[in-house]
Amino acid sequence: MNWKMSRIVRTVTDFLVVPIVIFGIYLILHGHLTPGGGFQGGAVVASATALLIIAYGTLGRHKKDLSTIEAIGLILFISIALLGIGSTMFYNFLAGTGGMFGGTVEGINSGYINTGGTVTLMNLAVGIEVSAALSLILWMMSKETGIMKPEKKTSKTESKEVEN
Amino acid sequence: MSFDIMLHTPTFILAMPLLFAFLTILVSKFSKKFGEMTFLLGLLLTGFFVFLMSYRIFTDGGWIYTFGAEEVTTRNFFRITFIADGFAALATITIAITAIAAGIYSFGYLEKEMSSDKFYTLFLLTLGGVNGMVLTGDLFNLFVWFEVTSVASCALVAYENYRGRSVEAALKYMVLSTVGGLVVLFSIGLLYGQYGVLNYALLSGSISRTFLDKLALALLLVIFAMKASSVPMHMWAPDAYGEAPGPATPFIAITSLGSLFVLFRLLFGVFGVGIDTAAIGAILVILGVLSMFVGVTMALVQNDLKRLIAYLSVSQMGYMMMAVGVGLATLNTVEYQNFGELAMKGGLFHMINDGVYKALLFLSAVAVIHKTDLRSLNDLGGLAHKMPYTTMFFLVGALSIAGIPPMSGFSSKLLIYQSVYLYNPILAVIALVVSIITFAIMGKVFFNAFLGPDQGLTDGEVSNVMLSGMAILTAVVILFTLFPNLVVSEIVTPAIEALTGGVLP
User: How many helices and strands (H and E) does chain B possess?
Assistant: First the structure.
């Protein structure tokens, strides 16, 4: 018994969610080159969730998955930090090695995405964490404020208030 | 370049609680039992690394840990650094003992809850935040850990959100912490704008008594004194301590103690060179005397068991502020040799003492509340018949907080009386009077709640897990009681040397 918006809104949402998520992923992956990064990109991805909640009134049974994803993102972040422990914690062991994200930078911000070392990976971890966590927060808030409740219940409480 | 695990211990003290906080969420999805095991493993690993770090500090001296550098020994003032010295060892030992005991205790307390993983996560996050706060050597990093601690401990206070009062307490705590965090950020901005550095060691070299320096010092002093629940900024403390879920209560108190550690580090390490130490020391003494006296008089009229201990905790904070304030006021003078150092010894010894016996008092009070569902002293009575072990543990904590001669609280308070008397005799008199009132209060509580005829309020002792949590703390209190000289010479003296010797370069 969930409350939904009209078919038009739902269809437009279906179309809009894809570019919003892609833009969020772009912000996350280019965090070490352009303004943005893990947190900002994650927030953009979470705004897609907000759209879905408003249009459909539900996220299905994905609440448990969200908190799992959130925990995985944070564990990933700390694990990457710990991997540098051979030198010190947070040591950027990938930078300049030529491997994953290990390209050398030439000139002022050449826009070459394959650089940054662990910074890029950490942006990714933060992006996963923030998108899942903000989605979870939006979910809880929408549940508490009654967006997800069926319409009949709200009218009942209103009539009770009038009686009182 | 060889890998030396001992040099990396400060970062593990921080990384272990954070890593296991989120592992606990994941593992708890499969099995509650394994989730608890993960939580316990995280706590024990943290304790193990605290032990390793302290061992290295006490044998070979302190060092600076630079994050993200090629080697641990690299000095780079623009990176985040951690300071591992005697003072950090004292602080982390206090935090770790309390955290392990309260963590084990929480298994028994949360036995009947459907899911307890969120509690464990918040607990470990708070532990990580406090550890970061006392270890960091960078002002902006300090702000980050301050916020982590505030958010995690606010959520911990509001954990039993079906009770309206705990939500109210958490809201009060959160508003004050958030405003406090912003003020800390503002004062960090004042310092950064003038000198362009955030590192403690570099800042302490450049502080030069400008008006903005004084403003930043005043703001930092007020906010960290507020977090340390000093009168007149103590109003959140009784609410937060009183309404936090049982096993978390001593841990909220530990965040206050952690803030006090940070305050001392800032006053001695960062501002110690460039300020009028006599005046700032006198301000600390005044705050301390106020906390002692107002805290204990407020405790006198309380009926709620946990609120009463919370006010006593405010009053105990006063002892530390007064003693260390005397040390700060006499710093770099002849008087420091005469009595200032003794006052510092008393103050810092009282900190580690207080962290342990206050946790013991809180946990045994929570055991009573957990078993009887009663908080008011008017309703309680005759519990010693059915709960002999809890009674014994409470008695040890009560005697210690009142400073009755053989107990550990007495050894640290005696050092404080002796040294403070030479600074100003009135202070010693006030400290003695407060101690006597504390004893009277503890006597009242003990007679009211535990002695007398059995009223059938409880059907027996709390579970063995909860008893073992309290037993750990009791063992530590008795250890401090038996060997106070050893604690002072091995743990407290290196801390004082680290504090007054300036921050490691």
Answer: 20, 2
Q: Greater confidence, B14 or B273?
A: B14
Contact A64 B19 (CB under 8 A): no
Report CA-CA distances (Å) from B135 to B188, B263, B503. Answer: 18, 13, 12
In a domain, B9, yes or no: no
Contact between B386 and B458 (Cβ < 8 Å): yes
| Tens of pLDDT, residues B234-292 | 889 999 998 888 889 998 999 999 999 999 999 988 887 777 888 899 999 999 999 99
Q: How far is B20 from chain A (nearest CA, A)?
A: 9
What is the token pair recorded at B158? Answer: 């509001």
pLDDT of residue B505: 65
Quick check: is A2 in a domain?
no
End-to-end CA distance of chain B: 21
Q: How far is CA B218 from the centre of its chain?
A: 22
Tell me the pLDDT tens digit for each residue of B421-461.
999 999 999 999 999 999 999 999 999 889 988 888 888 88
Q: Is B280 exposed, middle or buried (0-12, 13-18, 19+ CB in 10 A)?
A: buried
Contact: A75, B11; criterion CB under 8 Å: no
- Quote the mean pLDDT of chain B: 90
Residue B400 tokens, joined: 């210690």
Print the domain residue range for A70: 7-152
The answer to the question of residue B188 being in a domain is: no
Q: Is the pLDDT of residue B365 over 90?
A: yes
Q: Mean per-residue pLDDT for B21-42?
A: 90
b (16+ CB within 10 A) / e for B375-400: bebeebbbbbbbbebbbbbbbbbbbb
Percent helix / strand / coil, chain A, rounded to 5: 65, 0, 35
Is residue A142, in this structure, part of any structural domain at all? yes
Q: Using CB atoms, pick whichever of A67, A68, A91 lies closest to residue B68.
A: A91
Token couple for B21:
């906080």
Residue B92 lies in a domain: no
User: Number of folded domains in chain A?
Assistant: 1
How many domains does chain B fold into? 1
A1 part of a folded domain: no
How far, in Å, CA of B308 to CA of B394, rounded? 14
Residue with tokens 């009277």: B440
CB within 8 A of B418, min separation 6: which ones?
A: B339, B342, B346, B428
Q: Are B445 and B305 in contact (CB under 8 A)?
A: yes
Please tell me if residue A71 touches chain B, with a CB cutoff of 8 Å.
yes
Q: In this complex, do B26 and A78 lie within 8 Å of one another by their Cβ atoms?
A: no
As for the ipTM of the complex, it is 0.84
Instruction: Determine the Cα–Cα distance for residues B447 and A101; give it in Å rounded to an integer.
Output: 68
Provide CB contacts within 8 A for B483, sequence distance 6+.
none
